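Key idea: predict the complex, not the pieces.
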Amino acid sequence: MIEVIAKGFFESLYMTLVSTFIAYALGLPLGTVLVVTDKDGIFPIPWLNSVLGVIINLLRSVPFLILLIVLLPFTRWIVGTTIGSTATIVPLVVASAPFIARLVESSLKEVDKGVIEAAQSMGASPMEIIYKVMLPEARPSLILGCAIAITTILSYSAMAGIVAGGGLGDIAIKYGYYRYQNDIMLITVAILVLIVQLFQEIGMKIAKISDKRI
Amino acid sequence: MARPIIELKNLSKIFATSEGELAALNGVDAQIYSGEIFGIIGMSGAGKSTLVRCINFLEKPTGGTVIFDGQDLSKLSQKELGRVRQSMGMIFQQFNLLMQRSVLSNVCFPLEIANVPKKDAVKRAYELLEIVGLADKAKAYPSQLSGGQKQRVAIARALATNPKVLLCDEATSALDPSTTASILSLLKEINKKFGITIVVITHEMSVIEEICNRVAIIDEGLIAEIGDVEEIFAKPKSKAAKKLVFPESKYIEQFVGEKCCRIIFDGRSSFEPVIANMILECKEAVNIMFADTKDIDGKAFGQIVIQLPDDERAAAKIMNYLTSKGLTVEEVLQND
Ligand SMILES: Nc1ncnc2c1ncn2[C@@H]1O[C@H](COP(=O)(O)OP(=O)(O)O)[C@@H](O)[C@H]1O
Ligand SMILES: [Mg+2]
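Result:
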């Protein structure tokens, strides 16, 4: 039994971390584009901003469970199967990338306009402002956002147990819901709670250490 | 002081706001000469910040031209504009330092933008921190500095790329009086030592007095008056200038008809106790109704309003005495 739980634990971790990584690869640039192309941004492109905003809102308004099912054909097309933890990464990324884009957007919007203006007065290009001013200045806030993203993705990944998505959620449903082994369900839930706590704590610590404002 | 480094021609800026169009600048003409310290003063909302932001094109003017060092800025590509901006440093009221970078790294920032090799940049940054007196704070972060120290870092940063002009938008407005004085003397020193033209935006007359050679008074998006600081202080012509030079002048109007006269100190007389001497000499008592004089470089500027004795002869004696001292004396009239 311990082996089953250990396997589920590593599957959950694998799904969560890989999904977070890929989702950030999409969400970080997307969130940046949202801020930069805003009408008050450093490179306003209002139509692009509106189009992206609508797409993100659409994706974010679909409940994860529905997305999971709707995306089954797409998942099969990409991964070749719809069950197991690798297959679950696909809906996790699709669901969390827009969420991450919004997190990144709100972090970047906190950056002092005056500092950006100072950089512009030194002749910095929009790219330089993104890489040398906005992202570094927002670093502590981005790290906190990342902790929120990881924990959210972890809880999404547990939902994937419904469609045999692997990981701790899958075990909780298989043993707890279908076979009435409540003790195993409780253990897996407890482990999930612990992981969430851990990621949140680590995220806050790193954010605090990296912040030079205090 | 012959060559204009910045020429503003009929500059206007209209903001499109949700409540309609807002004209922040209505055709500003001004020339700023190489090597001078030029002041721009006006009440809050007069358009000072907009004007200075138009000088380096942070704000694109909606009309008119900005000529910097012979180049029409509106004709430049974004890339060329970036290069021009490297020869115009700017400092701000809120300092605007990068909070996640050390002091040294802040000063290196404009050099990174200018593609200066890291090693040279660090060397230059240390030189600059030496100039502003903060070499020992190189490894500190902005949050660990006082307001005055932050502004010094900002000045070092603005000077990093050897600009020809330093634009200062309310650079001392967030600082206490003694820190303000030290920042102003640093700016003066930089102007003298490196010949950098400095444009000082402020709403405080004392800042202009302290460091500027020439001043433009801006009111409702227009230059109300422009000229040498001494001249404008002595004989403000426009309403906006009078309001700034004699902020309490409203108070004076109520003396009209009580035989008052205004003694104007325009800098030709030295800062000596004129009134006391007058009383000793004429042996007549006068009432001082209002006084606002300043000592600029040992010269007296400002005005004193006195109430003359009712006796005509005594009054004439006093008037004669004052005129003989080379002072401008005028009766206080309505609408003055
Ligand atoms: N980006 C902007 N959009 C709309 N109105 C603006 C903007 N910037 C400045 N203004 C307006 O222009 C006028 C002049 O502002 P500003 O140049 O900041 O004045 P000052 O610096 O002299 O206090 C004000 O009425 C202000 O509200
Ligand atoms: Mg202002």
